[in-house]
Amino acid sequence: MAEEKEKTAEEVKRLIPPVDIYETENNVMLIADIPGVTKENLQVDIENDELTISGLFLEPKIDSGKKLINECYYGKYTRTFTLSDVIAQDKITAKLDDGVLTVTLPKQEKAKPKKITISTE
Amino acid sequence: MRLTLWDPFKELMAMQRALDSAFSSAKITYPPIDIIEKEDKIQVIATLPGVDKESLDLTILGDTLTIAGEKKSYGQDGVTYVRRERPFGKFRKLIDLPYSVDPEKITATYNNGLLTVTMAKAESAMPKQIKVE
After folding, report:
1. Which of A29, A83, A90, B120 could link B105 by a cystine bridge, Cβ 3.0 to 4.6 Å?
2. pTM above 0.80?
3. For the domain bounded by B29-124, which CATH number is listed?
């Protein structure tokens, strides 16, 4: 089952969602347009300081009838962003409303200064 | 290793396709739509993420369906944008329907950023069997 799902995901077209990124006092906000993606088909992952959005929007099957006009794009929305160390990665939240994904990336309380020990021999 | 002949036509075709897609997407007015014809109805699906349902204005006049509304930008004033790619503003799209529809039998739903308008074909647009005497 999982294999089958992966296979279909590979065949689908890659879509790049348009995004807005802006900064407020406490947060960095990332907003992406992903029409047609449901919560179940959406994944937001953080790995190696990278945030990846991937959402599936497959063309609905038409049992009877035919498509006369096709302007919409179907496929898999994918986009990766590199997170700076200003972001508190464990506090990231995301919500999906009407095909718009909003990711809130809170800034660290304090940029922690690094202590460098100097050793002498 | 297998050697393959360089096929200039194949590359030309690929270039043609790339050019076609670049121009065809420029022609489309917002929002992009799909039109599906079923036996007795026509369905228009529009990808419209983040639109206030209240701002959507759907009208039908003759065989033309108009989708109008406003897509708002979420950003507050005074914030610094790092990227701003999402389209916003007022839109209006006129769609010539391939068949006459019954204006009394139209339903519209808005889910996950998809607007779906389902219209029943008008009686006059339905196929009729003619009996040969």
Report:
1. B120
2. no
3. 2.60.40.790
